[in-house]
Structures are given as structure tokens and as C-alpha cells.
Amino acid sequence: MASYDLTPRIAPHLDRHLVFPILEFLQERRLHEDEQILKSKIELLNKTNMVDYAMDIHKSLYHAEEVPQDMVDRRAEVVGRLKALEEAAAPLVTFLQNPNAVQELRADKQYNLQMLSERYQNFASPMNQVQNRIWLMHWSLFIFFNHDNGRTQIIDLFNQDKYLNAIQTSAPHLLRYLATAFIVNKRRRPQFKEFIKVIQQEQHSYKDPITEFLACVYVNYDFDGAQKKMKECEEVSLRSMLVKIFFSVYLVLAEKLNLNYEEAERWIVNLIRGSKLDAKIDSHLGTVIMEPNHPNVYEQLIDHTKALSGRTYKLVSQLLEHAQAAQPAR
Fold it and tell me: How far apart are CA 211 and CA 203, in angstroms?
């Protein structure tokens, strides 16, 4: 499964310290050689302030008690920089720790941004909001997949228009995690049908066994293809989902409805008509043939145009909002 490892695509959107749990996971699962993982850790640590940790890994990798002089020099540099940063951040920290000063903040967000920006000059432009959302979604993976209700909360966050637009624009690999959340969520969310459309639209830019599995089942109705994709991700909870899909049909017909073959066939015909599916029954083979549900190219163009219009409107609104906040108070 190393070929589907998303670490190289996820890491650029994470702070370096958040990459270490991922490397630990890869090391435990033995997806890569230990020596390769340790060298990656040292390379990752070289540009951080975690010098002591880098020294420990260097000793473990090279089985030595001594470390290079450049690591020793780097440690002294880091300690000096930390002291300088503490002094630079002291005014803002003092402000936040002072109850009387905090009372200066108002319910008006624009006033707060302007006031704090004038005092401390540390607020990003709205042009960086898409990138900030991408970072937030990557960071939140550590929380959502370690929280009892995380599978529902990740859908609530990632499936919002502004976050889903950010995924489609710059981080389509996050579709894997949203797809997983939909699969393992006990309550079938109303947004699932719309999410399947997103997977279908983004197949040209990103696909893996999980997203392809959903496309096989819900778009192409290709259960043979779904079974092949299921074998590619046996360590994920997709096998149980596919089994449920097959068994739900047979259980409903055999146990719940208590129908014979002819009655079952008529029931399926009425179901197909009622759901407006493009399907037909092969009575000789005893199978239901379902045609893939490929959206019309003109409908896709209209959907993308609407989405682009919405994004443009939001961007203009944010720029105007920022411009108004930047004007001096009168």
C-alpha cells in the first residue's frame, strides 16, 4: 500500500511537528525501511527548533553517542532565537493576559482586526484565506480521526462550500478522508449524493482505491470493479460496506418481502421506474443491468460556471471587507 501513501502530498500543508506522528505511523506499519524513515526525520528536523530530538535520532541512526558540531551550534542558535521571540511577542501576550485590555475588544470583528493590526501588525490578508482553510483541514485530521464524533464533524466542516472549493482547487487528496468519513458514518448523510458528484468531477485530478470504489458502486454501478478496488484496500473498512450493499438486496427480497422470483422481478421493475434509474432486467441471467450515470457535459459546464461565480462573489466581498477595514477610522 506504499504506492497510495499520501504523506508527500499532505506534509507540505502541515507544520513540521505534525508530520512526525505520520512518520511514526509509517514506521510502525513498516511501509518504508526504518533507515529511510529515520533519515526523513532528521531532514525534517534540520529546519526546526527541535534540535534535541534531532540529536537523539542521529544517535539512533548512526549508533553513536557524539553528534556533529553543527548540531551543537544549531542548538545554541535556537535557544537565542527563542528568547528573542519571547521578547517580541511579549506585548501581545501581555494584552491577552490583561482582563481590562481584553475588554477593549468589541463584537465588531472589523474593529477588532483593525485595532489589533495597527498595534501588532500580525494579521494575514484575505487572499491567504484559501490556503489557511487548507492548512486547517490538514491539521484537523489529527482531531477528527481521534474523536468519537469526528466522522460526523469532518463532514460538517469539509463539506461546506468554501472548504470543498478549497479541496477541489488545491488539495483533492483530502477527498480520501471525506470519503472515508461518509463510508464509516452510521447515519447516511443527505450530502452524500452531492459528494458522489464531486468525486465524479475530480476523477481526472485525483483518485485512489477508496474514491474509485465509491465511483464504481454509485456512479458506474460496476460491482465487479468495486470488488477489485476493495482488494486494493483490504485494510480499510470498505469490504464490510460492499458486503452490506449486496446482502441488503437479498435480505430485503428474501426475508422482509418474502417474494418469489416473479414477484421479486416485478418489484425491482417498479423500483427502477420509481427511482428513474437507467437500468433493465435480464430475465435469462437473473441480473439487473444498470447503466453508468455520466452527467451531461453541458450540465457539468453550468455547475462549474455557477461555482466559479460564487467563488468570485465571495472573493470580491472579502476584498471589499478588507479594504473597508484598512481605511482609517473617521
Answer: 8
DSSP-based three-state secondary structure for 238: helix
Q: Is residue 220 classed as helix, strand or coil in its secondary structure?
A: coil
Residue 177 belongs to what domain range? 126-258
Q: Are residues 89 and 145 in the same domain?
A: no
> Helix H segments across 98-160?
99-102, 109-120, 129-144, 150-158
Q: Are residues 75 and 193 in the same domain?
A: no
Q: What cell was used for 122? A: 500580525
What confidence category does residue 276 fall into, taking pLDDT thresholds of 50, 70 and 90? low
Specify the higher pLDDT residue, 324 or 212: 212
CB of 61 closer than 8 Å to CB of 43 = no
If one counts the domains in the chain, the total is 2
3-state secondary structure 294-319: CCCHHHHHHHHHHHHHHHHHHHHHHH
pLDDT at 236: 47
The answer to whether residues 12 and 78 belong to one domain is yes
pTM greater than 0.70: no
Look at residue 329 and tell me whether its pLDDT is greater than 50. Answer: no
Distance CA 76, CA 85 (A): 15
With cut-offs at 50, 70 and 90, classify the pLDDT of residue 205: confident
